[in-house]
Amino acid sequence: MYTADMHCDTISKLYYSRKSGEQGNLLSNSFQVDIGKLQKGNYLLQNFAVFVDTEKEKHPYQCAKEQIALFEKEMELNQEQIRQAKNLEEIECNRKAGRISAVLTLEEGEICENDLRKLEEFYQKGVRMMTFTWNHENSLAVREGLTEKGIAFLEKMENLGIVADVSHLWDTGFYDVCRYCTKPFVASHSNARALCRHKRNLTDDMIREIGERGGVIGINCYSLFLEQISCSHPKEKEKNSKYYNSRVERIADHILYIRQIGGNDCAALGSDFDGIDCELEMADCSRIEMLERELRKRGLREREVEDIFCRNVLRVYKACWKE
Fold it and tell me: Taking the complete model, does pTM exceed 0.90, yes or no?
């Protein structure tokens, strides 16, 4: 069974670790994602996010370009095992050759610095998905919704073939995307708010909107988005520490709930590996079969698991990508 994951922060983590003087690489590292681990998990494709925190980086565009240069170098060094894919034909070509496909995404719309020409430049570099914001207001999105520039960016993204990603958007921005989009869109790494009341998670109505429009939701493995924390005293937290871990059983709960609300084609994977710091039962991407076994134990047929693990994402890419 192939795996397609819509979100990890491995390239950004590698970039910042090198800036700190560490010498890591994509082939083999101590992170949650590397080529060896991806191979063990039988990954067809992995989306690699270029992430920039605009409160820490004064020049987000330049920082993103440096991360993409690192990504391109790693693709060159490891081209027998993994190659960038900019379209479905390249994904299939890589599959037939036994290689993993790497898809570039942007996690923070301000990387484009309010300039549609920079968005086009990133498209030419192979970016095929973008969030409008991360955790801060920017020129594209504020708490009240998408700005005029954000709406213009959404239109340009659809024209280019860049998938709109609503993860990290405030609720108002989500509904602006619903109002103005004409193609399927995704929440690349978000969960169900009904199961965990966190603002990063999606309400039932949001889940239905994504499903009805042919989009998908990538389940996030971060414990903060999986379980509702009820105890606040440090000793109680220590005593109930298992509830603060990312458990495969709880990941499956969110997948099944999203399928129930949004339809069978709505659920996908968006691990957020290398962007999360909790204790993980599924320690890294090589252990993805743990989730497969749990879903089969819950009664899902092989075809249904394959849809969640891979086919639902490919369907959205086919609907949105130009090439």
Answer: yes
